[in-house]
Amino acid sequence: MRIGESVTFGGSGLERAAHLRGDAQAQARLLADRQAGVLALWRGKPAVERGDTARLCWLAPGHPVLAEAQEAPIFLGLDAGAPRFAVDVSAWQPEEMPDTLGAFFDPSEQRHPQMPEGAAFVELRGVMALLSARDAELAAMARALTGWHAAHRFCARCGGASVPAQAGWQRDCPRCGARHFPRTDPVVIMLVTRGNRVLLGRSHGWPEGMHSLLAGFVEPGEPIEGAVRREVAEETGVRVGRVTYLASQPWPFPSSLMIGCRGEAVSDAIRIDRAELEGAVWVGREALAAAFRGECSAIRPARRGSIANFLLWNWLADRLD
């Protein structure tokens, strides 16, 4: 798919400068650079400045908000030569804690009293399609890495407390010497078609009316094509024949690589696995186009910025090849 990399989080050519991660002196110089910027994240929400558009809020390394961090900044890379870092400030306690934390979508925003005017910690899903390609790549990387550190503070080999290394791209265990690295989980997401129809599913707990493409984790020892056929059959009973690759999307919720594929269905009957899905339906092009226009109350497409929305939109526009 020629336009595959234009998907949100699809990459912007950031210079990740991996060769500088293990150089302590270089890291110190980068943090002292006058162009250096640090992205603070609270409970997975990046600091964003809102106005006519949305952009990440980059703080100077000595900014008071960053005093809430409990670990050293993570080096993200060089943005046109400017060093970029991320820190987790989840230790900060706002005056009010929303009851929507942990929901599928948390609409609440939190503003640290010392944050710049107009900046707040916001749900990345809500602004991902408004960010520039560079900001989206940096935000996805920062959210995935801070989430990995928060969930992997102890060694998987011996249970001892691990410590960050390599500018945040590794955790080392002082007790047994094990080294741990950020993980990305492969997930297939499939545009399953049969003639002029596409197969959509609805998961439990999703917003009212929301439907999306079927998706599932790739299992150990399983090829991508096999995962596509297995997941579709398990969740809906529909059998898939030919499978082709379309595009991929890093998905930092918490840290997956969505592998977008097209599958050609060889059967129609739907038999839903109620443990996996609330429902599934074949939708024609005309009905899907109406849903994108907001004219179909029964079906709402996946959120703009997701690869599901991207693939469905381009299927409607006949731009998948």
How would you describe this protein?
Helix content is about 20%, strand content about 30%. The strands form three sheets. Strands 1, 2, 3, 4, 5, 6 and 7 form a seven-stranded mixed β-sheet that branches. The radius of gyration is 21 Å and the shape is globular. The mean pLDDT is about 95. The protein folds into two domains: about 5-150, no CATH class; about 185-315, Nucleoside Triphosphate Pyrophosphohydrolase, CATH 3.90.79. The protein is α+β, with helices and mostly antiparallel strands. The chain has six helices and 16 strands. Strand 14 (about 240-250) and strand 15 (about 255-265) form a beta hairpin.
Low-pLDDT runs of 5+ residues are none
| DSSP summary, beta strand count | 16
Overall body shape: globular
- Average pLDDT figure: 96
Cα end-to-end separation:
5 Å
Q: For the report, how would you describe the main beta sheet?
A: 7 strands, mixed
Strand content range: 25-35%
Radius of gyration: 21 Å
Short overview:
With 321 residues, this protein is an alpha+beta fold. The protein has helices at 24-32, 124-127, 133-151, 224-236, 285-292, 307-316; strands at 37-42, 45-50, 54-56, 58-59, 74-79, 82-88, 119-121, 163-165, 170-172, 179-180, 185-194, 197-202, 214-217, 240-251, 256-265, 279-284. Strand 9 and strand 10 form a beta hairpin.
Secondary-structure topology with pairs:
Elements: H1 24-32, E1 37-42, E2 45-50, E3 54-56, E4 58-59, E5 74-79, E6 82-88, E7 119-121, H2 124-127, H3 133-151, E8 163-165, E9 170-172, E10 179-180, E11 185-194, E12 197-202, E13 214-217, H4 224-236, E14 240-251, E15 256-265, E16 279-284, H5 285-292, H6 307-316
